Amino acid sequence: MNVTHPRPRTTRTAALAAALAAVLLAGTACSSKAESGGGGDAADGVKAGPGVSEKHIKLGALTDLTGPYATLGKSIVQAQQMWADETNAAGGICGRQVEIVVKDHGYDVQKAVTAYADISPDVVALPQVIGSPVVAALLDDIERDGMLTFPQAWAASLLGKDAVQVLGTTYDIDMIAAVDFLTRTKKIAKGDTIGHVYFEGDYGANALEGSEWAAEQAGMKVVGQKIKATDTDLTAQVSALSNAGVKAVLISAGPAQTASLAGVAAARGLRVPIVSSAPGYSPQLMKTPAAPALEAMVHVVSAAPAVSSDLPGVKKMVASYTKKYPGEPVDSGVLSGYNAAQLIGADLKKACEGGSLTREAVVKAHRSQKNADTGLGTPQNFTFVTEPASRSTYVLKPAAKAVGGLVGVEDAHEAPGVDAYLAARG
After folding, report:
1. 3-state DSSP assignment of residue 188
2. Whole-angstrom Cα distance, residue 105 to residue 163?
3. How far apart, in whole angstroms, are the C-alpha atoms of residue 369 and residue 355?
4. Prediction pTM value
5. Which pLDDT value is given to residue 6?
6. What sequence ranges are listed for the domain Leucine-binding protein (predicted)?
7. Cβ atoms within 10 Å, residue 110
8. How far apart are CA 103 and CA 83, in angstroms?
9. Residues of the chain falling short of pLDDT 50
10. Where are the CATH 3.40.50.2300 domain residues in the chain?
């Protein structure tokens, strides 16, 4: 494969999860494993492979419907199923109907490994794998199988694999943008101390890399507070940050931790700006007691726009989703999932045009895309395996009355220093 390498370089009940998976899998029940395809040419002359038959294209989703990101997982699954239904109604891809096989791992790495082993022989690509630790555990298998995979995780450690595509920015780039935002808007200044609460593991570690680098460039220092996904009361962390005299706090964790941080900080008088990585916010937080503190103190950095955006593609997606799933929240997971599905659909179409739907052909088609634009954010360049697909970050703000609970503050832009940072990473 000719790929350019310019520089080297993360709670629902089980019953609800089972019910959701049953609904999403209903459309796949009529198709046997024998039909999934194992190679050779189809009647239309298109070369097939795992997950592809003359009538169907099977995609896989390793998601979290019962763990800490269950709300996100449900949104992504439903958005991707909506895309599949729309695609099939329009005639499918390469004359074939698209099916999505959903497996819930509950954010448990071992369950995810088992689920991957179960579905990998019968799908051509994975438009959804939730969780940096999950993807990290599967990297060798995914690369061995040559299966195009879109993680719903943005750690820089996931870069560098032909078959694995981190969509948008990585956590470190977003944290560089966060420090830039705080500095540029004069919320912090040279000599200040910034707190950073972060999950242990690749997610938090990568985010901390970005914040520490940006702080050093700006003449500031970072006081880190490492936490676990099970830590939902951040009273101790707030006390430590207050004692350190922080002028702002970054958080790279989950929604429960962001809510606790903002709520406790407000209650204890630590009323400083808080900037969260995208996975640390969900609109459901605006229905909790922490909502006033979130609106008053928090911003979110993200590779994707708010779902309340006026972008025509986003507005169309929101209208379709609310019609298909009335009463369901339209959050960032909807946009993320739908965007990933559209991108993988474009890859499949391009591979079909080349006469092959093998995994190798799908990866090759994907890596040839230099300006992939779904209308749901910034264009992306997938030709650089060792670099993020985008370097542009949006700044958003919680808003209880907005669709998706977020509004845009700043449009996507590349923060100063990102080029230098990527070069420094080697």
Report:
1. coil
2. 21
3. 17
4. 0.86
5. 41
6. 57-392
7. 10
8. 18
9. 1-37
10. 14-169+309-390, 171-302+393-424
Single-letter code of the amino acid located at 320: S
98: its two tokens: 């698209």
Of 224, 226, 218, 271, nearest to 248 by C-alpha is 271
45 class by beta-carbon count within 10 Å (0-12 exposed, 13-18 middle, 19+ buried):
exposed
Contact yes or no for 272/189 (Cβ under 8 A): no
What pLDDT, on a 0 to 100 scale, did the predictor assign at position 39? 52
Distances, alpha carbon 334 to alpha carbons 121, 149, 280, 401, 407, in Å: 27, 18, 15, 18, 15
Alpha helices, H only, 121-234:
132-145, 171-184, 202-217
How many CB atoms neighbour CB 118 within 10 A?
Answer: 13
Decide the pairing of beta strands 148-152 and 125-130: parallel
Angle, alpha carbons 73-74-77 (nearest 5°):
85
Task: Please tell me the distance from the alpha carbon of residue 286 to that of residue 354, in angstroms, as a whole number.
Answer: 48
Per-residue pLDDT tens over the stretch 401-413: 999 999 999 999 9
Structural tokens at position 167: 């969509």
Radius of gyration of the CA atoms of the chain, in A: 21
Q: Please report the pLDDT score of residue 368 as a whole number.
A: 97
Q: Among 64, 73, 68, which Cα is nearest to 255's?
A: 68
Q: Which amino acid is located at 183 in the chain?
A: T
Q: Identify the architecture of domain 171-302+393-424 in CATH.
A: 3-Layer(aba) Sandwich (3.40)
**CATH code for residues 14-169+309-390:** 3.40.50.2300
Contact 104, 110 (CB under 8 A): no
135 contacts 206 by C-beta, under 8 angstroms: no
Quick one: pLDDT at residue 426?
A: 66
Cα separation values, 246 from 42, 125, 221, 273, 293, Å = 63, 45, 9, 10, 17
pLDDT digit string, tens, across residues 142-176 = 999 999 999 998 999 999 999 999 999 999 999 99
Name 153's Cβ contacts closer than 8 Å, sequence gap at least 6. 10, 129, 130, 131, 132, 134, 135, 166, 202, 203
Q: In terms of Cα–Cα distance, which of 282, 225, 218, 220 is closest to 251?
A: 225
C-alpha distances in Å from residue 115, one per residue of 103, 131, 132, 155, 244:
6, 14, 16, 22, 44
